[in-house]
Amino acid sequence: MKSDITWAKSNRFGGISLIISGLFIILESAIIGGLKSTIIMLTIIIVDGIVLMIYSYQISKKYCEK
To answer: Where exactly are the structural domains of the chain?
Structure first.
């Protein structure tokens, strides 16, 4: 990361996002179980990773182009 602000904001958002995703995964695993649960878990993790990359890119563009 080129900027300390970008690094801090991306990590703050990522931490909160991963905690929320983890809670959803725990909840759906307790309710659904089995192969469906694994597919849902992987989907949540992949979507969360994509959201984190997009957010980091947007923050990077906002703070590093000034």
So the answer is: 4-64
